[in-house]
Amino acid sequence: MQDRYVADVGDFGKYGLLRFLSAKTELRLGIIWYLFSDESHNSDGRHLSYLTKPEYAVPDSDLYLALGKIVERGQRSVRAVEKAGLLPKDSIFFRRRIAVPNDLVVDRRKRAAARIAWLREAVRSSSDAELVFLDPDNGIETASIQRHSPKSGKYVYWEELTPFWERRQSLLVYHHLNRTASVARQSELLRAQFEERFPDAGLLRYFLFRKGSCRHFWLISQKRHAACFGAAIDALLRSHWREYFEVG
């Protein structure tokens, strides 16, 4: 996650889903931002035209108006999202930056140690959450970026899900799809990986948001939460959000 993405169309989908799931399940939400320093090599984060299209207000008008105000005030940051009250009042936020420019000149052992320390603090801070949302910039790890790489802060690594899962917390994991294969094929491959790593999951589903570019939100539910998530998904598919999300 980068501050420059706040309130773009992808954020609209993200917070819409989090608000909906939180309201329907009444589970306490913890957010691990995976906050990465803003980059400037591309124009990502400028997908704001949805704020001029009133139809986007239909599924959640309060969210639509609140994100519009953040953009209007020039306050695009995760801190502004927290202050805006977009998410339940008892939500837990962990926004310690995962990487800063100076990381580029630090040796790999120190980067790896810093990552371990960052994760330890993230896990500790979210101990009271029941649903933990992990929000990396790009998504689930790729073989080309090792955990000690300067760019590793843009990914969540499989092993980083373990401490939350073993603490009996359900997970929602962001993943940005790419052009290496079709959406269907990438979804199939990711599902196989999740099934292999979480054979005891009570429910495994993804929410695909296609506005702007394709994004996955993978839900890995503890068995004790499976029924309430199942009911929430059924409710989502009956709501206006069904026009925005495909559930797989």
Return the string of H and E elements. HEHHEHEEEHEHEEHE
Could you give the order of strands across the largest sheet? 2-1-3-6-8-7-9
What share of residues is helical?
A: 25-40%
Largest sheet: 7 strands, mixed
> What's the CATH architecture?
3-Layer(aba) Sandwich
Distance between the termini: 24 Å
pLDDT < 50 runs, ≥5 residues? none
Mean pLDDT: 90
User: What is the count of distinct domains?
Assistant: 1
CATH class descriptor name: Alpha Beta
Q: Which band does the percent of strand residues land in? A: 15-25%
Summarize the structure in words.
With 248 residues, the chain is α/β, with parallel strands linked by helices. It has a single domain, classed as Rossmann fold (3-Layer(aba) Sandwich), CATH 3.40.50. It is 35% helix and 16% strand. The protein has helices spanning 9-25, 61-72, 78-83, 108-125, 158-166, 183-197, 226-236; strands spanning 29-32, 92-94, 131-134, 139-140, 155-156, 170-176, 203-209, 215-221, 245-247. The strands form two sheets. Strands 2-1-3-6-8-7-9 form a seven-stranded mixed β-sheet, sandwiched between helices. Strand 7 (203-209) and strand 8 (215-221) form a beta hairpin. The longest helix is centred in the middle third of the chain and has 18 residues, at 108-125. The radius of gyration is 17 Å and the shape is globular.
